[in-house]
Amino acid sequence: FVFVVLMSKTSNSVGVTRSGNRKWRNQSITQVMDELRDSSHKRTTSVGSEPVKPAKPALCKTVSLPDAGVEIRLRSKTRKLAPKKCVSKCLDYLTRNEAYKTEGIFRQCGDFDKISVARSAVEDGTATPAIFDDLGTYEVADLLKILLTQVLEPLIDETRFMKLAEVPDIIKDPNMHEKFSSTKLASMSIASVFASLPHSDYRLLIKTIEFLHLVIKHEQESRMGLRNISSVFCGILFAHPTTTDPLEYAKQTKSQGQLLELIFTCMLRFPDMLSQVYENEEAEILRILLTALKL
Q1: What's the pLDDT score for residue 206?
Q2: In whole angstroms, what separates CA 277 from the centre of its chain?
Q3: H-only helix segments in 97-225
Q4: Cβ contact 248:241 at 8 Å
């Protein structure tokens, strides 16, 4: 199916622009980060004084009709799903169907054949929203894990893992504990490390973490508590240890699990930690934490 858009030849608005002005990242954290880092490390480029965001690739074919003085754009109604978009759709599906209340979610296996078909479609670049039509909750949950593990790069790369590993030592500073608990300081540090990720990875990570947080909150129904989810997803969200030493591998895997437990512990205590606006004394502590983490 296609739709036709008639446009004047002299029109300059032939590109596909990003709609809406929604801010996905915690602006309070990124504003402080921008104050502390050199302007060359900012994500946006500028022409004059106006920031310029990279345009999304056009999802249409433009056909010119010189004699008629128009251009026709043909756009398919069935959009293909890129791997990251498919992960996002998996999370949307699971949230919409309240899969966080499903017993054994992420532990019980789905239909292997159906999952394989969906995975192949994603890897071949032919996946559309219709791939979810034949999948149930367990199949989508398994597809999510497969895409995060085998198709995409880890959302928390080695650099951010090392930054997160520094958090327990940084928050031990007695000068920071006059008015804030260690859990509060840890939540601020974790949110800061997450905010340093590339924009698309950040959005996907936060969406994933927030859904897993729901699963943990509904542990009575899901039978998947903090430790269960952390043990399953530490090898999915973090990069696999590169060591060939079995003892060192086990040590690093344990460290990843403990970090993920810390993240979810902070979220259970401060559910808005990834979107909170910090002011006054909190903002000053945030600056100290960002400096200590070298973000």
Answers
A1: 95
A2: 20
A3: 112-124, 137-146, 158-170, 182-195, 199-217, 219-222
A4: yes
